[in-house]
Amino acid sequence: MSDELTKDATDSQLFHDLDAEASATEIESLCMQCHKNGTTRLLLTRIPHFKSVILMAFECTHCGLKNNEVQSGESIQEYGLVHQLRCTSKADLNRQIVRNNTASISIPEFEFTAPPATNSSLTTAEGLITRFIEDLAADQDQRKEAVPEVYQAIEVLLEKLRNALLLPEEDGETESPHAFIMVVDDPTGNSYVENLCAPKPDPKLAIRQFRRTREQMIQMGLLNAEADDSQWSEREKELVGQGRRTNLRKEMEAAKKVMQAVREASEANEIMTFPANCSSCNMPGDTRMQMVDIPHFQEVIIMSTTCEHCGF
After folding, report:
1. Closest CA to 275 of 260, 258, 292
2. Is 181 exposed, middle or buried (0-12, 13-18, 19+ CB in 10 A)?
3. CA-CA distance, 204 to 272, in Å (whole number)?
4. For the CA atoms of the chain, what is the radius of gyration?
5. DSSP single-letter state for residue 247
6. CA atoms of 266 and 292, how far apart (whole Å)
7. Which residues have C-beta within 8 Å of that of residue 155, sequence separation ≥ 6?
């Protein structure tokens, strides 16, 4: 337990909130194209309402090679996650998306699915579609000569993808004919689609948990391909148990810190105020708290919340 707590404390020091003042760490590293030294920039950060990620960017001043990558700073989650985003305006195309390299992207209206990528990436819905267009259009000249029927089918898909980028600036009374649903399916649970209404639920974004299949466990390296069904079930239970213990440990540590802060404020005869969401409308507000020592009884905590939005 002590080792796990030490790891949490270290993580909190390594990963900082994403802001304009965040500075990257520069490391000299070998360029795999010209085999001379280039520069890798690392930024360990936390994305609001999500998790910790590692942003990496490499640049070689000798041959001009550039690339970037994002890796999750978290362990595999208890369950896989499916994000379903309804894109109807430019604001939806500009949503921030963390695509883990285990996540597949699909657009049901276009009957299109992109398999898991080689690297993880921090991008937007528009960025993903633009990348799909570039990849599909790359070999169209060769297909036109060799397999014209495949060429024609991809041209139809390319037209749909290009039209998807022509969404209006804002939602109107009628939905755009180019509106579509983007599905991000990640068995590790470490992909993310930005919620524009956070901390409230987003009406255009649906998130669903799911249990991983045997095939997904094998692809992720969590299960031997020759393992039987009983070993698969035991391994899945082990992962879920680890996640629950981690969550419980984090909650206990957070509770201890809150109690300590309340006790110190009470000893100074001060009322502690901290931000919290309203339990009625979920809008941000303030909660006031003070610890009171009742004679011949025990210490009790008095809490008060008033919501300026709904009056709760």
Report:
1. 258
2. middle
3. 37
4. 24
5. H
6. 7
7. 140
157 contact partners, CB below 8 Å, separation of at least 6: 110, 112, 136
Q: Find tokens 């290009």 and name the residue.
A: 162
Residue type, 104: S
Residues 51 and 192 sit within 8 Å (Cβ to Cβ): yes
Q: Taking the CB of residue 198, how many other CB atoms lie within 10 A of it?
A: 13
Q: Which of 4-8, 38-42, 218-222 comes out lowest in average pLDDT?
A: 4-8
By residue count, the chain amounts to 312
What per-residue confidence (pLDDT) applies to 186? 94
Let me know: does 289 contact 301? Beta carbons within 8 Å: yes
Query: Considering the entire predicted model, what is its pTM?
Result: 0.62
Please name every residue paired with 105 in a beta bridge, in sequence order, or none if there are none: 114, 184
**Cis previous bond, 199, omega within 30:** yes
In eight-state DSSP terms, residue 46 is E
d(CA 184, CA 128): 11
